[in-house]
User: Fold this.
Amino acid sequence: MMRAMVLEKPGTELRLVETPQPTPKDQQVVIKVRACAVCRTDLHLVDGELPDIRYPLIPGHQVVGEITAVGGRAELAVGARVGVAWLGWTCGDCEYCASDRENLCDRARFNGYHVDGGYAEYMLADSRYCFPLDSSEPAEQIAPLLCGGLIGYRCLRLTGEAEKVGIYGFGSAAHLVTQAAIYQGREIYAFTRPGDEAAAVFAGELGAVWVGGSDQPAPEPLDAAIIFAPVGALVPKALKDLKKGGKVICGGIHMSDIPRFPYADLWGEREIRSVANLTRQDGNEFLKLARDAKITAQIQTYALEEANAALAALRTGAITGTAVLVID
Ligand SMILES: [Zn+2]
Ligand SMILES: [Zn+2]
Assistant:
């Protein structure tokens, strides 16, 4: 048996349950979870804001642990230390998989959404979608890299060669992507929630060249903007902060409606683009970059059974960096 935090219906707290440990088949492995970071997507799941959630569900898609059992065709061995991210399985033959865009796979399954995730002592994963970890960093330090870091990296990559990059919403993804961007020689302009002093101080400590409220205009035109806050009104705001040819990248899986805005604000070949999920290549590239750049996550740890408290703290903006469940 194992302990797990389960979402039984939308809009309710997770419930601590005892449930049988999973058994691996074929390419699957069982992972003893050491740490699982908490993501804003988990809040959207709890709130029922994503389509086709199956209940009961164990959330969690930023997992670090060790393999304790393998299926007959698994590509990893017992004892291997691995990371598990959002992408859990892809079909391998739709038009997206066939063109190196497995993040857009028509039949993709995501960990902690379509299949049970890491808010548990053990989880099942497809070995082909696990990231082998050779880092000796503690599990709770690596876990935040696996969604906040990775999605942030994909957003940053899609800004191309942008030098002056605005970041809107300064939480888990932002604090990791800021470190990656500075390592790559870019300048970060941090837009925090008006009045959120802690986030503003944090952004400054991480090396942002400018920090201000998201209601303030950028001090000079930017090459790109990355929006992590789930606030649609930031899209036309960010567009106004851009140079001609600039890009707005929306990094969240869910956002409130985008208000209407004049075409003149989009004119000049400005672009708005969403980032959906990740590819395994993103994961491998970012984990290497994180090692080279010595990216460190600022974490606040919680026990497994405190998952509801971690989610509540994330919701109110009380987390500086990333909340991580640490499982004994
Ligand atoms: Zn996530
Ligand atoms: Zn596919």
Summary: Residues 90-91, 94, 96-97, 105-107 surround zinc ion (ligand 2) (CB under 6 Å).
